[in-house]
Design a protein that fits this description.
single chain; about 375 residues; eight-stranded mixed β-sheet; 22 strands
Length: about 375
């Protein structure tokens, strides 16, 4: 069904956790029953179950999900999968509330294959959990990296409020840069404006461990009306398989780069922290060309009256995302955290200060049997 013909708005009564009900508006195929199926009464417990949920609490698995070359999208709000031709389907899924939250969207399928050249971009307010009842194989890419104005699935959860990055101080002569978001480490502070008279915002705090399945935290805006916006944190993705996960492609959950100050001697926005990536299976094999990255976004540049440059989004590599260049006497943004390198502070400036870099996120490999090719890239190191 074409997305243009999927405009029927239904009220779906969503069962989550057995005794809790949520009513949400879902844009869907009128014939589809999103979240309508209950647990499979014939389910046999997994010998190695993911820590995030009980697979037997999910609907019976649907057919194998094979993504071929092209760009696909999955929305964790509605459970809609959009293929490269813009056709929409609804694989079996359920909303799950683990202890401590946040609520997750769990997709239950026989097998999960992301083929070469396929890119799955995930969006929505909930993290995505893919539960494959045999194997999961990823040769293409799963993209949970956020961009300014386009947060990935599960980014910026409510838990971020407890240790949020701080906004830069406003000052007509030059606002301070916004602090970078935190998660797996502390976000970097924004650079001061007006040679230190307008303080940069503090970076966001490191999350308590275990982090759980949640997205990264956003960076903060710089000071002044035309300051750069804070970049959203990276998304959160879990790939769980009953038998084996084979990764030869890319899974990325980078934080967005901080926005550039657009004028008014504003400070640059702080970069978003990287998100969370979890692989869970009895056997996990990570090949030579594989990349798992949850890096922070670079801070945005500060302004001297005209637009500066935005920070780069967290990279699908071990390289740090560069901060945006300041304009005139505005400060450059700090680089985002990557691998074992912490996020960098935004530069202090005569005019608008640069935004602080976002911190790294969190990567977990949950398995009793893990093989990682030495040429594979995992940034930051799994914990």
């Amino acid at each position: 069904m074409r997305a243009a013909r999927a405009a029927a708005i239904a009220i779906a009564l969503v069962a989550a956790g057995g005794c809790r009900a949520v009513v949400e508006l879902v844009e869907s195929d009128p014939a589809a029953e999103v979240d309508a199926a209950g647990p499979d009464p014939t389910c046999q417990p997994w010998s190695f179950a993911p820590a995030t949920l009980d697979p037997c609490a999910l609907p019976a698995p649907g057919p194998a999900l094979t993504l071929t070359a092209g760009t696909w999208g999955y929305d964790t709000n509605s459970g809609a999968l959009t293929d490269p031709a813009q056709d929409v389907t609804f694989p079996p899924s359920a909303l799950v509330m683990p202890a401590g939250g946040p609520e997750l969207r769990a997709v239950s399928i026989a097998r999960f294959d992301v083929g070469p050249g396929a890119v799955l971009r995930v969006s929505g307010k909930r993290p995505l959990v893919v539960v494959a009842w045999s194997d999961a194989s990823i040769a293409g890419a799963v993209d949970a990296t956020s961009r300014i104005g386009a947060p990935a699935a599960g980014a910026d959860p409510d838990a971020c409020a407890a240790a949020a990055a701080a906004i830069g101080t406003a000052n007509a002569e030059g606002g301070g840069g916004g602090g970078g978001g935190g998660l797996g480490a502390v976000g970097a502070a924004g650079g001061a404006g007006v040679d230190g008279a307008a303080g940069g915002g503090d970076g966001g705090g490191r999350a308590a461990t275990p982090v759980g399945v949640r997205g990264g935290c956003a960076g903060a805006a710089g000071g002044n009306a035309l300051a750069g916006a804070g970049g959203p944190g990276g998304g959160a993705v879990v790939i769980a398989a009953r038998d084996r996960v084979q990764l030869d492609g890319v899974i990325a959950a980078g934080g967005a780069g901080g926005g550039a100050a657009q004028g008014g001697r504003g400070g640059g926005g702080g970069g978003g922290a990287g998100g969370v990536v979890v692989l869970a299976a009895p056997t996990i094999a990570i090949g030579a060309g594989a990349v798992i990255a949850a890096n922070g976004g670079g801070g945005g540049g500060g302004s001297d009256g005209n637009p500066a440059l935005a920070g780069r989004d967290g990279q699908p590599s071990a390289a740090a995302a560069a901060g945006g260049q300041g304009q005139g006497m505005g400060g450059d943004g700090g680089a985002g955290g990557a691998a074992a390198t912490g996020a960098l502070v935004g530069l202090r400036a005569r005019r608008g200060g640069g935004g602080g870099g976002g911190a790294v996120g969190w990567i977990s490999l949950d398995s009793p049997a893990i093989s990682v090719d030495p040429a594979a890239i995992i940034s930051p190191a799994p914990r």
